[in-house]
Amino acid sequence: MVGLGRKYRIFNADINVRLRYMAERGLTFFHLDSPLDTDPAITSVKIDGRTSLGVPFRISVDGSPYTDITAKLLEDLWDRISDSIVVVYSNTDMFFGKILQRMEALGFRSSSSISGGHEVQSYGRVYRSNPRVWIPGKICIESSSFVYAETGLEGLMETSRTSGLPIVDVSKVTTGTAVSSMEEYIAVGNGVLIPLYKDDHEAQKSASTLLRTDMGGMVFQPDPGIYTDVYEIDFSSMYPSIIVRYNLSPETLGGCGDFHVPGTPYYVDMKRRGFLSMALDQLLKRRLYYKSIKGLSETYERRDAALKWMLLTSFGYTGYKNAKFGRIEVHESVTAIGRDLLVRSANIARKHGFQVIHGIVDSLWIRGNGDVDKVIKEIGEDTGIGIVLDGHYRWIAFLPARSGLGALNRYFGLRYDGSFKVRGIDIRRRDAPPIVKRFQMDLLEALRGCRNPDDIKAKFTDLLSIRSEYMRRIGSYPREMYEIAMPVNMHKEDFRVNSLHRAAIEIAHRGGYFPEIGERIRAVVVSKDAMALDLWDSSSGTVDSEFYRSLIDRAFEPFMFLAKSSGWVPAQTVPLF
Questions:
Q1: At what angle are helices 175-189 and 146-163 packed, to 10 degrees?
Q2: Is residue 7 a part of any domain in this protein?
Q3: Are residues 429 and 489 in the same domain?
């Protein structure tokens, strides 16, 4: 018997065989003699497209669109695939699988195979991965892969290089799995045993201890409004830096030690180096190096992004129940130290004459007449964690939540370098139709020249004109501007009320298309009252104008709040009698 409460324990039994081979021999994929080296030149082709009722009807090859999928086009595409090492493809609704079937019908035998997609749950949401295609002799990467979508081929190569996993495996797994693989790679290389079954689960705690330790990140709630001359300062990879700086690891954390974790009963043994701290130290140093030079080339920028995502998930995996090198007490200690550091940082900023407007986990927004460079320097010296100036805003608006209190992640502002930072409005939403996103982009562009609230107040008539123009032309835009990506989160029979989402699923079923949980259905609303949707481009351009006008109105609300915060007052209608 093995595992929890068993007689024997088993180690190094479930390690990826390719990872183990590479780790035991000190090998890496896409090896670089210097971090400044470029990646090897690899020929690639990118194939994207759409299907309707399971039939491909639109395709693009390396960004060039084609509306007619002819035999000649497929022949040319086969030549491109044959000449390429990397094939990046979209298999949403089995698009690429259908293309390969057509090629085989024309006599082009690829000997390809297709694996089924699967559902993944994350933070209460259900996602579905597209079926994967394998072609012998090719590196096949599905374009919806998170790592590829966020960091491109260069990011995939960097993640493969760091994790010890082949690039195709990296494209299939989460960044958390890549971090776990990196830890296993380092463990094998250093002779550290990896348990088959995790047996250091959360220790029993009293209710008071649980409430004291399980508190998450620190937040300073903002007062809704517009603020000028604001600095945003961020800790660089705060949580991984805490793990490294404070030597946090399951074997170093306990009831006694040299360092007391503030607000908890935990102590850290600082005399011996913890494995988790040691493993993340290498990843952190590499990421900070690429962050410092990412402006030199797109390759360095994408490597930095890949390492950033690995570091972001490395903290979450310390509390994951099945993480081989995780433990919930480490997770709690990281957040406890993070809360302490943010409070200390806010006090330092106040000492230098700054007002803290907002703060969340690892970021502070401050304004005042002090020297921000001195604040950053003192915070770095006091905490031992690197902190940088992430942005200097001419103005920034923190939006209210429905309760009227300041929302934590809804704001937008104009930096002195002319760029905007936007969070929590429709332009960032996956389910907002392109017409709404373009509307908000036009509004932001109109505000680009505004230096202060008075400028915003004076500019508001232009914003109203933009809104009026969109309202007037609401039915005249191309069809794709109205498409809403509706997530399929449950089966049709599980809906308790009628909704557009349920209607989309029913219409898809009637058309012979059966979307899986986690997929998204792209639809145009033809009539909300009648629950009529167009999934197949069959309505000759008809849309529910009033429905889309309501979306435009909703998208305008943050900008109306901005105007009112800048002093704009709507014209009053004076009664005649």
A1: 0
A2: no
A3: no
CB distance 90 to 47 below 8 Å: yes
Residue 194 located in a structural domain: no
CA distance 182 to 487: 33
Rounded distance between C-alpha atoms, residue 351 and residue 354, angstroms: 7
Which H helix or E strand runs over 253?
strand 253-254
Task: List pLDDT tens digits, range 337-375.
Answer: 999 999 999 999 999 999 999 999 999 999 999 999 999
Domain count, the chain: 4
Alpha-carbon gap, residue 110 to 100, rounded angstroms: 8
Chain segment 136-158, per-residue pLDDT in tens: 999 999 998 889 999 999 999 99
Cβ distance 50 to 41 under 8 Å? no
Do 530 and 516 lie in one domain? The reply is yes
539 band by pLDDT with thresholds 50, 70 and 90: low
| Same-domain check for residues 30 and 118 | yes
Do 381 and 240 lie in one domain? The reply is yes
Query: What confidence score (pLDDT) does residue 538 get?
Result: 57
Same-domain check for residues 364 and 446: no
Q: For residue 513, give the nearest of 543, 536, 496 by alpha carbon.
A: 536
The three-class DSSP label of residue 139 is strand
* Residue 413 sits in the same domain as residue 437: no
User: Model-level pTM?
Assistant: 0.85
Q: Tell me the pairing of strands 267-268 and 484-487.
A: unpaired
Q: Are strands 225-235 and 363-368 parallel, antiparallel or unpaired?
A: antiparallel
Domain boundaries, position 512: 479-542
CA dist 283 and 287 (Å) reads 6
- The Cα–Cα gap between 157 and 164 comes to 10
CATH of the domain at 325: 3.90.1600.10
Distant-in-sequence, close-in-space partners of 574: CB < 8 Å, separation ≥ 6: none
Strands 86-89, 44-52: parallel, antiparallel or unpaired by DSSP?
Answer: parallel
| Inter-CA distances, 128 with 46, 50, 122, 149, 501, Å | 21, 17, 11, 15, 17
Instruction: Based on the fold, state whether residues 385 and 461 are members of the same structural domain.
Output: no
Chain length of the chain = 577
> What's the rounded Cα separation, in Å, for the pair 232 and 367?
9
- Asked if residue 264 belongs to a domain, the reply is yes
Are 456 and 489 contained in the same domain? no
Backbone angles phi, psi at 536, to 5 degrees: -120, 15
Identity of residue 430: R
